[in-house]
Amino acid sequence: MVVRLIKKDDDYVSTADLIKDLKKHEKVDQSGAIFTFEGIVRGEEPGKEIDKLILTTPDNEKTQKEMEEIAEDVKLKYGVNEISLIHYIGEFYTGDSLFLVAVLGSHRDESYDALKEVIERVKFDIDFKKEEYSNEGTKTILAGG
After folding, report:
1. How far apart, in Å, are the Cα atoms of 66 and each of 34, 41, 73, 112, 127?
2. Does the pLDDT of residue 145 top 70, yes or no?
3. Which helix (H) or strand (E) holds 22?
4. Which tens digits make up the pLDDT trace of 109-137?
């Protein structure tokens, strides 16, 4: 399982890297699905142009542990073979990757459901703070936004 909180520019992991790693997993022979998600920075919202986004968390170690717990909980709940996730923090611009998830499972239904739950739990349960800089000024968005 790959679960990492990475400061932008300290390292780079792509969705392709996560897939490649999952295909080496010991249970790949019993797997029939890999689902992935890549959350990226939007450059526009209705009536607003976004210049940049700064994403932080108050406690990197706590956030790392919470991401690991979510991955393990969801893996057990849905019976999937493996879940990997990467969340970046730092300063981002349009098209930059923020959040990657990959799920390896025996079948598509539970793999897809596991993917959706990881995305929602990380978004709503972990203490991330986004500072959005746009043509309308700066807006702070807390977990769930």
Report:
1. 23, 23, 10, 21, 10
2. no
3. helix 15-22
4. 999 999 999 999 999 999 999 999 999 99
